[in-house]
Specification:
The protein has a single domain, classed as Cytochrome p450 (Orthogonal Bundle), CATH 1.10.630. Helix content is 48%, strand content 8%. The chain has 16 helices and 10 strands. The strands form 3 sheets. Strands 1-2-8-5-3 form a 5-stranded mixed sheet. Helix 8 crosses helix 9, helix 10 packs across helix 12 and helix 12 packs across helix 14. The longest helix has 32 residues. The chain is globular. It starts with 12 loop residues before the first helix and ends in a 5-residue tail after the last strand.
């Protein structure tokens, strides 16, 4: 990796393709760095592991954008486009305790290890069904044909979205990620469509409760829990939004890394052929560290003057923890720029840290593990069908993922 000699330019298309040299420079020369984002908002980037871990658990850094020092127009640039106008602000990414504690408790039972294990057969069914659709052709775009629909259908099932409605959610979600690096208006329109649908679905489910997450939220409301309808809709929205895009990128970035490292891929494939579970679990953790799905943790705002890594931060300043930089910090990881699927000491920050640790991480790991294992088992000679230099990465601020991942393989029935 060629680390630049001078301060790198951030948030260009070249940076999006490979941000790691720039992050290496920042860790060395400006570990807590103030920069102007493409939206025009100025924020602090935290790049070293020890500082990142501290910041993620620091109660003085609020998730509530109302603490932002800028006016309402500026605040609208610090979250998911359209969520403010769609009245979807009261979700886990935007609130602090005690509201965060209360709402997280209501949905956490859906993501316990036992509940996720019960969902494993459905994830496997979805995975096999999607592969069946393209296995006979000998080629696929693993993003559009596989990594994108798998988590969409999975989270829809978990929420309780009827099967006949799930393709609509897939279309709206697709509009969100296709416009992720472009005009915010396209994303905002999709957010409003999803908001309207979730409101209607919540009303519909009141007359037909079942064993799904939306029904559980309705029961909690009816049993006296302090849950408003806006909170229920916002919670469903953020679970849908965060639940699909992180897993798309886990699968896409993970397969991309394996195809670019044939020696590591071969070792993993051999362990899959032997039916070993442990190496696959370890590999997923290394893929989360090496080129994880979330590049920057979601927004935080200083509620009082504080210091991170010796750098003073003023009240109201936005802080963005760069997970991708922290996960390649040589002060924490040996050979951080090397993909080592057998890495054991791997306390990466791929899903965050502290009370805002990703609620859906167990489900995302299940989906990622199932997707990788099934692809390598069923399509053992899968390979890139494009020059790696021609691959394009989406230009959004928070997530890191490929636009397309063309592959080819021996066709099968």
């Amino acid at each position: 990796m060629n680390v630049p000699n001078t301060a790198p330019e951030l948030f260009t298309w070249e940076f999006a393709t490979d941000p790691y040299p720039a992050y290496a420079w920042l860790r060395e020369h400006a570990p807590v760095h103030r920069t102007k984002l493409p939206s025009g908002v100025e924020a602090w980037l935290v790049t070293r592991y020890v500082d990142a871990r501290q910041a993620l658990a620091d109660g003085r850094l609020s998730k509530n954008p109302d603490h932002h020092a800028e006016d309402a127009h500026g605040k609208s640039k610090t979250g998911i486009p359209g969520e403010r106008s769609a009245n979807l602000m009261t979700h886990l990414l935007n609130i602090d305790p005690p509201d965060h504690t209360r709402l997280r408790r209501l949905v956490s039972k859906a993501f316990t290890p036992g509940r996720v294990a019960e969902f494993a057969p459905r994830v496997q069914e979805l995975t096999d069904g999607l592969i069946n659709e393209f296995a006979r052709t000998g080629k696929a775009d693993l993003i559009d044909d596989f990594a994108f629909p798998l988590p969409i259908y999975a989270i829809c099932d978990l929420l309780g979205v009827p099967r006949e409605d799930q393709d609509d959610l897939r279309d709206w979600a697709g509009m969100m990620i296709r416009h992720g690096g472009g005009p915010r208006g396209g994303v905002a329109r999709s957010v409003k469509k999803i908001r309207a649908y979730l409101t209607e679905l919540i009303h519909r489910k009141r007359d037909d409760l079942s064993d799904d997450l939306i029904s559980g939220l309705i029961r909690a409301f009816d049993h006296g829990e302090h849950l408003t309808e806006n909170e229920a809709a916002a919670m469903c929205f953020v679970l849908l939004f965060a639940g699909f895009e992180t897993t798309i990128n886990l699968i896409g970035n993970g397969v991309h890394a394996l195809l670019r490292h044939p020696g590591q891929r071969a070792l993993l494939q051999e362990s899959i052929e032997r039916g070993e579970r442990g190496p696959l679990d370890t590999a997923v953790e290394e893929l989360l560290r090496y080129d994880g799905p979330v590049e920057l943790a979601t927004w935080r705002f200083a509620t009082e003057p504080l210091a991170i890594g010796g750098q003073p931060i003023a009240t109201g300043d936005p802080v963005l923890v760069v997970l991708a930089a922290a996960n390649r910090d040589p002060a924490r990881f040996s050979g951080p720029d090397t993909l080592d699927l057998s890495r054991r000491d791997n306390k990466h920050l791929g899903y965050g840290h502290g009370i805002h640790y990703c609620l859906g991480a167990p489900l995302a790991r299940l989906e990622g593990r199932t997707a990788l294992e099934t692809l390598l088992r069923r399509l053992p000679d899968i390979r890139l069908a494009a020059d790696p230099a021609d691959l394009r990465w989406r230009g959004g601020l928070i997530m890191r993922g490929l636009r397309k991942l063309p592959v080819e393989f021996t066709a099968s029935g």
